[in-house]
Amino acid sequence: MTISDIPTPALVVDLAAMERNIRRMSEYFASRSCKLRPHFKAHKTPEIARRQLAAGSCTGLTCATVGEAEVAATVSRDILIANELVDRSKCRRAAALARQLAVTAAVDSAEGLDQLSSAATDARVVIDVLVDLNVGQNRCGVAPGEEAVALGTRAAGMRGLRLRGVMGYEGHAVGIHDRAEREAAVKHSMGMLAATATAFAAAGLPADVVSGGGTGSYDISSAVPGITEIQAGSYVLMDSDYGCLGMPFEQALFVLGTVVSRAVAERCVIDAGHKACTKDHGQPSVKGMKDAIVLGLNDEHTIIAIPAASSIKVGDRLSLVPSHIDPTMNLHDALYVLEGDNVIDVWPIAARGYGTIDRSRSA
Amino acid sequence: MTISDIPTPALVVDLAAMERNIRRMSEYFASRSCKLRPHFKAHKTPEIARRQLAAGSCTGLTCATVGEAEVAATVSRDILIANELVDRSKCRRAAALARQLAVTAAVDSAEGLDQLSSAATDARVVIDVLVDLNVGQNRCGVAPGEEAVALGTRAAGMRGLRLRGVMGYEGHAVGIHDRAEREAAVKHSMGMLAATATAFAAAGLPADVVSGGGTGSYDISSAVPGITEIQAGSYVLMDSDYGCLGMPFEQALFVLGTVVSRAVAERCVIDAGHKACTKDHGQPSVKGMKDAIVLGLNDEHTIIAIPAASSIKVGDRLSLVPSHIDPTMNLHDALYVLEGDNVIDVWPIAARGYGTIDRSRSA
Q1: Distance of CA A74 to the CA centre of its chain
Q2: Among residues 240-259 of chain A, which lie with CB inside 8 Å of chain B?
Q3: Would an 8 Å CB–CB cutoff place A284 in contact with chain B?
Q4: Cα(A62)–Cα(A69) distance, rounded to whole angstroms?
Q5: Cβ distance A137 to A103 under 8 Å?
Q6: Which ipTM score applies to this complex?
Q7: Fewer CB near the terminus (10 Å): N or C of chain A?
Q8: Domain B3-9+248-348, what fold?
Q9: Is A326 within 8 Å of chain B by CB?
Q10: Is A351 on the interface with B (CB under 8 A)?
Q11: Which of A109, A274, A276 sits opposite B280 (nearest CB)?
Q12: CATH hierarchy code of domain B60-227
């Protein structure tokens, strides 16, 4: 099977580029005390996570949901669910996982602690918890400092739970294009995280895990004293948004489409629209075609302006460079693995989607 | 099972509202010569399509892809694939379907005709074709008039194909908010479509199918003399974008989420982000909460500004009203069917996604 046999639209990965990204990140962390906890949400693909962990320098995996953790459990024995679990069903699923592997969850409320404690106690397991801090993203998380210490103190006394420390995601800062500005914003956020860990220790609370960071900040956050692990995900496949930041990672992920129309000389249309490649971080670009301009993505079509003299014809294949990896991966069920133009494997994107009837039954 | 047992994020449908939408659309077309060909791409859910067809006034189903048509074949014996099929594999799949049911495909190129003809001849079937016209959307389609007649003439002479007429989608016009402006733009586009059908007839070409329209134009396009069927999809479940147009259809589709954080008084965060509810047509709104303002959607979170005095707490459930139904449906594998707060069924969104390994094997 070669690239021309793949039914389009389809996600494809340049395996050699992906392996280089994995190696570079692993080598970066090899000599540091801060380690990597790759974020599974970026790709939801067990085979990629397996390779990330096998490369070394990792504490475990990060997941966004308990559903992801259930899938990632096939490749990791140490999973951080870096979001709040607050309902009984999800806490029970987390507790069920904690029978087989080390499970850590983020908390930012007393209600969340109660539910996790109850589920852990019922299942006779221990769930590790990190107090989630708002380090400037203004999404979830309690305020650094006193408020965090108060929630940590509460957590430390609860049955079935083991407080491990703090986490905070500087999501407002990881994408800032200017390096100096990004560095300042990231250091400010991670400084609040590290200072709260110090306050935990001063209050006699455990703070051996101080978790934060992402692809855009891995080499900034990891250098802040006290940060113990970085939750980077996108680096492994990359997207054009992170591609602007000048990092040592290569674009390895593409959305393959077929030209279905060239009814006029100045544009062509491919069969990969925004149901195949999201545009929430801007339009994708066309791989290897500097003179092609993406005019727009509809549900099933990408409309591309091309020079009138271009030889592109109906049936040709073009590759889009996604602007945002996470939601684009989430649109597909399979990832075609390329060595040159040969398809050497097809990996299930096993954790994609919501509402799989089988998965909800396991709730 | 009630709404509070559904694992979030999840798609839910208010069944009674959906049934009213189906009945209203069916009644509109009952007394007209122009009929409805509901667009399956809006929901990808066979059980919804079955009910749309059972209500009457339909010529068959519209699909966007051959993969959708393969799934929709379980509920319809007459399917229009309203996009260009140009590669051998997809044309073969369309030909395989044509063994069991009437299959029509859109064409805008000689290459597309060649591939379809070859696949139909090999499979010893007939595939119906419509010449696709660019009626102002500037996506696919040949120019109305002479160019269309030339492609129609070519199609009429090809083995395995049966020319049926023309289609054109006024996608640039269906969403115009001002009714008078929308009406003018739609009539202009549909006028080009009807005039080309007349030119087909004058050239001795078949033109018994003249297909166009959408939810935003169903009552305008269907009144243009010569238009034989309307490809509306969104009307059955609706979204907030079409909801602005003042049509007689109710919002029946919602994305259910759980409040996972209320760390500060002035905002809450739910566990349904843009992996569960797209924002390509703008932010969703919160059902039944006029004082709630969606500040943003991240991958797994929607951040909502609420009054500081609001009683919303961690664990509560909120429903988002999606701004764009088609790509939102495409994010989920199942649709929970509600009568009041009771879940009476769970329908598979059987045609969602790309790259399903099983489906690619059938290619």
Answers
A1: 18
A2: 258-259
A3: no
A4: 8
A5: no
A6: 0.95
A7: N
A8: Lyase, Ornithine Decarboxylase; Chain A, domain 1 (2.40.37)
A9: yes
A10: no
A11: A274
A12: 3.20.20.10
